[in-house]
């Protein structure tokens, strides 16, 4: 029996809106985004060991390296070094989220590893700098609540989003892995303006995902998925997350979400019926 202290959820990340503002001199793009999290995702467990080890199980374990390049492993190594520890950990990742899907699986796993191992190793080494070094989405995943991200997405401002919590959410992936780099590279370079501020649902609805158009150009089935999601009864907002290909819909009721989820299971490669955290 795994105790609560030895288990940590790694919830799926959703970009409720993602505005691309400009290409910076280092080649990266400055973005403004509204991050939110699902109630479900991957799951990480830990047990005692002399060295560091990682096992991956679950529906998306296949093809994912469990070696030192895995973000869980990199997070564990970085924390061990920052805390000056020599202790090990036997980690098991239950990989429920598709890989390279725009829902931050790797970033969520890295953040979960930091939270879990800080507890397991009983260290108060600051986690935020480690998160920043691991990837732009990792600081937001470390917070794990609705938050606004600027810069590369790592400069965070908290958002009051109590009314979003529990909102029925459907995630759907058409079965294609999207690499983030080519999608940014296919952006047309037009700054369509900032993300507004205020009520997060209104900010999201008034916003856009500027990576949708380039992702659809690279992978037209994403456009078909968005048309399908927007036609579902009770869908109040349907959009692509991150660089895709996963798209999400927020629903006005759990019943409408369940009905769409049932259809999605028949029509699309992967889907997850959940709610916003
Ligand atoms: C788009 C977002 C939105 O949350 O999520 P995902 O789709 O990855 O989940 C993130 O900004 C993903 O940020 P990050 O995790 O740093 O992306 P990486 O995989 O490191 O980036 C791969 C490549 O994409 C390009 N890239 C990435 C981020 C950015 N702000 N500008 C870029 O131009 C760069 O060419 C980079 O080498
Ligand atoms: N624990 C992990 N889970 C998923 N991907 C990982 C992990 N560790 C490293 N990666 C690598 O990170 C890349 C991005 O994956 P992921 O975080 O799932 O997608 P995205 O950046 O689209 O949200 C993948 O191509 C994969 O090789």
TrEMBL record:
Record field: catalytic activity: 4-CDP-2-C-methyl-D-erythritol + ATP = 4-CDP-2-C-methyl-D-erythritol 2-phosphate + ADP + H(+)
* EC primary class: transferase
User: Per UniProt, where does ATP bind?
Assistant: 98-108
Keyword set, alphabetical order? ATP-binding, Isoprene biosynthesis, Kinase, Nucleotide-binding, Transferase
> Taking every annotated instance into account, which residue ranges of this chain make up the domain GHMP kinase C-terminal?
198-267
Q: Which residues form the GHMP kinase N-terminal domain?
A: 70-144
Query: What domain of life does the UniProt record list for this protein's source?
Result: Bacteria
Q: Tell me which residues this entry annotates as catalytic.
A: 13, 137
Gene Ontology biological process: isopentenyl diphosphate biosynthetic process, methylerythritol 4-phosphate pathway; terpenoid biosynthetic process
Q: Does the keyword Kinase apply?
A: yes
Q: Which Gene3D superfamilies match?
A: 3.30.230.10, GHMP kinase, C-terminal domain
Listed EC numbers: 2.7.1.148
Q: One MF term from GO for this chain?
A: ATP binding
Q: Does the keyword tRNA-binding apply?
A: no
- UniProt pathway: Isoprenoid biosynthesis; isopentenyl diphosphate biosynthesis via DXP pathway; isopentenyl diphosphate from 1-deoxy-D-xylulose 5-phosphate: step 3/6
PANTHER family listed in its UniProt record: 4-DIPHOSPHOCYTIDYL-2-C-METHYL-D-ERYTHRITOL KINASE, CHLOROPLASTIC
Membership in a protein family: Belongs to the GHMP kinase family. IspE subfamily.
What is this protein called in UniProt?
4-diphosphocytidyl-2-C-methyl-D-erythritol kinase
> Which gene name does the record give?
ispE
């Amino acid at each position: 029996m795994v105790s609560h202290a030895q288990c940590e959820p790694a919830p799926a990340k959703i970009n409720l809106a993602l505005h691309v503002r400009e290409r910076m001199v280092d080649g990266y793009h400055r973005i403004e985004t509204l991050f939110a999290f699902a109630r479900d995702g991957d799951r990480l467990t830990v047990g005692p060991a002399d060295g560091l080890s990682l096992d991956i199980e679950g529906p998306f374990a296949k093809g994912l390296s469990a070696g030192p390049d895995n973000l869980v492993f990199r997070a564990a190594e970085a924390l061990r070094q920052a805390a000056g520890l020599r202790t090990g950990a036997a980690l098991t990742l239950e990989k429920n989220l598709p890989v390279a899907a725009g829902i931050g699986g790797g970033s969520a796993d890295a953040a979960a590893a930091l939270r879990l191992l800080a507890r397991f190793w009983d260290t108060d080494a600051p986690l935020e700098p480690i998160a920043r070094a691991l990837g732009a989405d990792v600081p937001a995943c470390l917070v794990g609540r609705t938050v606004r991200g600027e810069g590369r997405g790592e400069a965070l401002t908290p958002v009051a989003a109590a009314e979003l919590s529990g909102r029925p959410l459907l995630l759907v992936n058409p079965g294609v892995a999207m690499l983030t780099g080519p999608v940014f590279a296919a952006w047309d370079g037009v700054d369509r303006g900032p993300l507004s501020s205020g009520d997060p649902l209104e900010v999201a609805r008034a916003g856009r995902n500027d990576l949708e158009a380039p992702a659809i150009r690279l992978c037209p089935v994403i456009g078909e998925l968005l048309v399908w999601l927007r036609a579902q009864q009770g869908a109040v907002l349907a959009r692509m997350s991150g660089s895709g290909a996963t798209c999400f819909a927020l629903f006005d009721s759990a019943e409408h979400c369940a009905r769409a989820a049932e259809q999605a299971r028949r029509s699309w490669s992967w889907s997850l019926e959940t709610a916003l955290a």
